[in-house]
Amino acid sequence: MNNLFAKQFAAKWEESWNSHDLNKIMGHYASDVMIISPDPKTALQLNINLPLIT
Questions:
Q1: I want to staple 24 with a disulfide (CB 3.0 to 4.6 A). Which of 11, 16, 20, 32 is the partner?
Q2: How far, in Å, are 3, 41, 44, 51, 54 from residue 38 at the CA level?
Q3: With contact defined as beta carbons under 8 Å apart, do 53 and 36 qualify?
Q4: Dist. CA 36–CA 51, nearest whole Å
Q5: Domain total of the chain
Q6: What radius of gyration do the chain's Cα atoms show?
Q7: pLDDT, tens digit, for every residue of 10-53?
């Protein structure tokens, strides 16, 4: 990873995060990402179709 790539990736990630658009945010993660949460109620409130480990 070079400096330019890292800066561009960070800018795109920040833009996605600030958009509050879950699909844009999750676009930065692998399709088989697993969310691990100490509070399953909070994790389930995300209402996304991902496997959850609690």
A1: 16
A2: 34, 9, 11, 14, 6
A3: yes
A4: 9
A5: 1
A6: 13
A7: 999 999 999 988 888 888 888 887 767 676 666 566 655 555 45
Domain of residue 39 covers: 3-53
Query: What is the rounded CA–CA span in Å between residue 52 and residue 36?
Result: 6
Tokens found for residue 2: 């070079």
Contact present, 53 and 32 (Cβ < 8 Å): no
DSSP string for residues in the chain: --HHHHHHHHHHHHHHHHHT-HHHHHTTS-TT--EE-S-HHHHHHT--S--EE-
53 token code pair: 């480990």
Specify the amino acid at residue 48: I
